[in-house]
Structures are given as C-alpha cells and as structure tokens.
Amino acid sequence: MIRFFTGLLFFLSAHLTLNAQITLDMTHMPTPGYAPWVSIADTLMIGDPGLTGEGITWDYSSLSPISQRRDSFISPSQAPFSYQILFFGADVVRVQSAPDSIGGFAIQEVYEFFDTQMGAFHNMGYGATINGLPVTLANNPTDSVLTLPLLYTRVDSSVASATLNAFGIYVQQNSKRWNHCDGWGTLITPYGTFNVLHMVTDIVGDDTISINGSGFSIQRPKTRQYKWLAQEEGLPVLQINAIVNDSLGTEVITSVEYIDIFRNLGPLANHRVQQPLGMYPNPTQGALNLDLGHTFDQQAELSIFDLQGRKVWQQAISPQAPRLNVGHLPAGVYQIEIALDGDIRSGKLVIE
Prior knowledge:
This protein is mainly β. It has helices spanning about 1-20, 80-85; strands spanning about 35-40, 55-60, 65-70, 70-75, 90-95, 100, 105-115, 120-130, 135-145, 155-165, 170-190, 190-210, 215-230, 240-245, 250-260, 275, 280, 285-290, 300-305, 310-315, 325, 330-340, 345-350. The strands form 3 sheets. It has a 15-stranded mixed β-sheet that branches. The longest helix has 17 residues, at about 1-20. The radius of gyration is 23 Å and the shape is globular.
C-alpha cells in the first residue's frame, strides 16, 4: 500500500511539473552566444493554431522540416562600429542571413538590434550593408516585441515607426502590435517537450515610399503570429505565422518554424522519415545505450554532428550491441542520427 501511494505521488508530481504555469522575464531573452537551429516546416499539415486555454497540451511532434536556418546572436560590440552609435544601449544583436541582392541592390549583411529596457524586449531596428555602404532602419519609438514579465492573461499593445533614407529612396514604416498571452501548458515538437506560454500577436501597419521625390503609401496586410514560448529558449519554441483578412473572415497560414537540432536535409531528406531516437543516460559522460524501437537484422550507420552541422563521429551499430562510448568527444550538445530500415532516427545528445 505504501509503495502504491509513493508511486501515485511521484506520478502526480511529474504530471504537475510538465504542466506548470511559467513566467518569462529578462533572463529568458536571447543573449550573445545563443545560436539555435530553426527548422521551417510544411504548412499543409498544421491544425488549428488558435487552440488555447489553461493546461493545454499542444502536440506538434509530427512536424517535418523542409529547410533550416541558423540564427546567431552576438554582442553589440561585435557589430560594425557605425551601427553601435545609432543603436547605443542594445543588449544583443541577431545576425540575419541576407539575399545576394534585391532590386539591383547588393546586400552583404543584416543586423537586428534588441534591448531589454524598461520592462520590455524591444526591437530597436536594423543595420545592413547595401552596395558596400552601411544603411540603418531604426525604430523610434522602438517596437516592443514582449512586455516583461510575460505571464498568462497579459494583454498589451505598442506602436513603432522606422525611417530609411538612402540612395534617393525614402521609406517610413508604421506599425502597431497587440499581444495577448492567452494560454499555457505543454508543447511537444520533434525537438522536445516544454512548459510554455501561448501568445497571439496581431500586427497592422503601412509603408510610405518615395523615390526621387515621387511617393506613394500602401497598407500592409494584417499578420497574426501564434507563439509558444519556453524558459529554455530565447526564441519561440514554435511560431506559426498567418495573413488575416477580417472583412472576409479568412486566415491563411504562411509559415511554420520551430527550434530544432541540426538535421541533414540532403537530397534524400524528403524521401526518408525522421523518427525520434531513444538514448540513455542523457546527459552522459561516456557510455550511451540506444533504444531503436524494435530489433533489426543488419548493421545500422550512426553519425554524430556538432551544433555547426559538422560530422564528428561515424560508426556501424551492431544489432547485438546497440550501444557506444562517446567519452572521446568534448563536452557539449550534439545531434545523433541512425540510418535504419530506410528511416532516420535522430535525437539531441548532451555530453558532460
């Protein structure tokens, strides 16, 4: 009887922990050195992203990546000096990948500046090198991406305005956002399981554009962002973006992205199924046991990648001994993959 109640208490404790209501503050925002992989998923298999409430479980474990990018956050002192002056007071900078050119303008690099002043996480604006010259698009007032601390039921709004004047082109962008933290619970993705806050953000705005003195204004379509935020990650663990037409009552999902491990999305990626890989103990200091889900008759190929996507180890796994020793690898976070029966089983490995 004592053993029964002990087990019951353990189960209840674990269940409450996995469904705990959390709060996000400035310590949970991105910091220099944060460099997550972000997977972009197919939008066709997405259900209703607006499902929300208290103690909800959102199961997005079936998401399948079609591409990936690497977000990189650096210290403001690592950004070009010309931007440091304009964006003085920034706490962190996101380095964004840039297209080779837009409309004949060569773009080499893009920096996005953030600060966490006065109880909010602000987007201060952008700096970019265009045709070899530094150009800035600074928000004044700044765009309050999150009001902190972020907790369930919080509602807030903010306005932002940004101006660019270069190469004979004048652009003014005005926007307004509404944030509503309308739910909390557990989110499951291919990357893991997290206690999260669910937030909906609506953004409307307009652009005024003038080229050599001749200008026009356009109204941007209303965008809606569904975000699931966890304390473990500086970016939303999952974000679903949509275009909303209030007059027609329509909402069209345009993109889905989530924090992930590096995935080798080569030419065969769309023809091979990504399956979760069980392993224990994890974290480990050396010995690692693998749970492949079922028995197999032939050798399987195992590969380990670092966070930069470089293959650091490869070996064959025997069906009689699905285990290995990783003590020769430096401490850190890795992706481990096993090609088995036409599928790829993958997971995040932590070496202490």
